[in-house]
Amino acid sequence: MDNKEILDSIEKIPVPKEKVLVAISKGINRDMKKTNRQRKRVIAGVAATVAILGITFASGFLNPTVNNVLANAPIIGGIFQEFNDQTGVDLAYTNAVTELNQAVTQQGVTVKLTSAYFDGSVVSITGFVDDGVENGKNEKGEVSFDVNFEHNTGDNDPWLNGKSTDIRKVKNGYNFQWKMNYPYKSFKEDFTLPITIHNINGINGEWNFNIPIQQEQNSTLALNHEQGYPDDEIKIRLEEILTAKASSSLVYETVEKYKRDDTILSKVVDDKGNVYTLGDQTVLKESEQEDGYHSTIRTKMTKLNANASSLTFYPQLSIAVPKAEQLLDKKSFTLQSERINVDLQVNDVTQNGEKLVVDYQFTGLPENLSQNRLDTISHNLEYAFWLVDEKYRLKIDPENPYPPKNHGIPFNSVNVIDEATAHYQSTFDLNGDEKIKNFKLENTILLFDFSTFVSSEKLEPFTVNLQNGEE
To answer: Do 104 and 210 reside in the same domain of the chain?
Structure first.
């Protein structure tokens, strides 16, 4: 057999590109060090390639298919390896990442966007900002962006919900990655995402970009399953699983009697024993109806195994407990919680100049709490109390609760008197940054948030048989 015949034969051999490249990626990540990162990545990549294809090299030729993939993947996927983004690495190996070359300079700072991908429910943008940012107000090594998408403004931008930023120092500047949850229920396979950076490290400017976003059509597996928990007065309605190239997304609805209860799915396990982790959630729709509060949620999920025939879901519930309150016109009283069996007994309220000391203890706590749990309670108590001017109590926005400026004190320092009897003291600074003008005890309300004692309750798992629901 001559060389041409051998090459033709090898070209027909199916190459497990993803497995080969994942192995290479693992080798690269294992050998990378923080220092001399670029050089070690090249060495690791060459070593892994030689190890896998040693027989081929020894024979004097290389499979062109393998050669092409190995040549391109480290270059495209290197930035995602740097950010430990396995989804990005996988997509780079399948040419599902859009390479960008858009650069804008404003106020002596250049921003260049380098790549974009859209997989499942996550949109990623990578870029580079030069060291001109170090002329801003941040500490050296810190980079912060004031950015909006789709011409939205401020914090009302739906793209900012769950957005994360990762920064890496490189030569002459910083690489960065933004990851956003796609905020809409219906998907567009191709669209342009306008991006406006208003401020970088306190340097004002307008860095404007229009980024092409592409995703192949997701496959859809309909679930159409409802699971009820009458004792907890909640329902979970599974709608569908959407599967993209490298990840899946689970869409489900919760129905809860109490508005701020939080029902989540902690994990999913298929009949093959594969465990699927669930990531950031995007609330697609919320409404109040006759049977309770409805929330439609999409959560990122590791890619569904095509051979799975059933899935077992593991839900958890964190209940909402309303704040209890008492006017401080008396020195001792009891605050009773709703929905949990914990009460707050206030023994004494004393004002010493610019300090207000509240002495209290809890009843109804479980016995034999671990030291870690006790430490958590002690820490949370610093934020569980509010002092609020009685006249401004009703001006607190229930959707964004916070004491009104100059009419509320939301922090205190905690002193543990006796952990065994759950006895504590909280001291409020009446002349701190947060204060109440013209403070008088008889005009002040003490609010306490009992949710510090609420732990997630594991609900009974349930199993759904999968049907041929792919579309």
So the answer is: yes
